[in-house]
Write a structure and sequence with these properties.
5-stranded mixed β-sheet, Immunoglobulin-like
Length: 135
């Protein structure tokens, strides 16, 4: 029961950010690899279709930890000043240990533009920013 309450909270928060996670029946599924190397995302810009389930494969080729947080500007402003040391409980907030990979699947309910950013100290200023366009 606790697990169901946790997911209910997660889904509610994601809906506020214009994201939705759920069953993928009827939606196209896509896998996208994002490599992290020299503290940069590659690709740093991509486009997906609204309503498609997208599995992001986040591959950290660096010898240091990173994170991949995707959301709108208000979401990122909260994370710039946040205190979470590790992410992974929410599918749009992932920590990627050095020399490893993680996967997460998201379905974007609304067209628009979101950013994915690493908010570890100094990483955003160094250029760990990407843009996702949803059509």
């Amino acid at each position: 029961m606790r697990h169901l309450r946790t997911w209910s909270v997660v889904l509610g928060l994601l809906a506020l950010a214009g994201l939705a996670v759920g069953a993928t029946s009827g939606a196209s599924a896509h896998r996208v690899e994002i490599h992290i190397h020299y503290s940069h995302f590659d690709p740093s810009a991509m486009t997906v279709q609204r309503g498609d389930a997208v599995t992001f494969v986040l591959i950290n080729d660096d010898p240091i930890d990173h994170e991949w947080l995707i959301g709108d500007s208000a979401f990122h402003e909260r994370h710039r000043h946040g205190t979470e040391a590790h992410h992974g409980a929410r599918p749009n907030e992932m920590s990627i240990p050095a020399m490893s990979s993680v996967e997460t699947t998201l379905t974007f309910a609304q067209a628009g533009t979101l950013q994915y950013i690493c908010h570890l100290p100094g990483h955003e200023a160094y250029g760990m920013v990407g843009t996702l366009t949803i059509r």
